[in-house]
Specification:
By secondary structure, this protein is mainly α. The protein has a three-stranded parallel sheet with strand order 1-2-3. Helix 1 packs across helix 2. The radius of gyration is 17 Å and the shape is globular. The N and C termini lie far apart (42 Å).
Length: 120
């Protein structure tokens, strides 16, 4: 497990990677799966990006129902430009798995439409 110092050292040593990640967060919408909302690197990037660029795209975190209380969710959503997507974790996270499959189908459909129309 990395401590605060280790995270800071990693950000310095891999500065190029973090710069790339920050650029992607500014220009793309992320769906975080299996990543804790308290991960120091993710928090730092999302908080900094949102406060420096308030019109940046909203990002999404999938988390099991009752993982966090509503007050914590509100604070995280407001400070990191997030929407929390809560799901029922029963049956080995089946609801999440089904939702991801549906999302893939929607994305593929949209890609096909873009390909056909050339309208980005």
């Amino acid at each position: 497990m990395m401590g605060s110092t280790s995270y800071a050292q990693a950000r310095e040593e891999f500065r190029g990677f973090y710069s790339l990640l920050e650029a992607l967060v500014l220009t793309h919408t992320f769906l975080f799966l299996g990543c804790g909302v308290h991960d120091p690197d993710i928090r730092l990037i999302l908080e900094d990006t949102f406060f420096r660029h308030p019109s940046s795209p909203k990002h999404f975190f999938a988390l099991p129902n009752r993982e966090l209380n509503n007050l914590v969710i509100t604070v995280l959503e407001e400070s990191m430009n997030l929407t929390m997507l809560k799901y029922n974790p029963e049956n080995n996270h089946k609801e999440l798995e089904d939702s991801i499959k549906e999302l893939v189908e929607l994305v593929e459909s949209q890609r096909e439409l873009i390909k056909q129309t050339g309208n980005w």
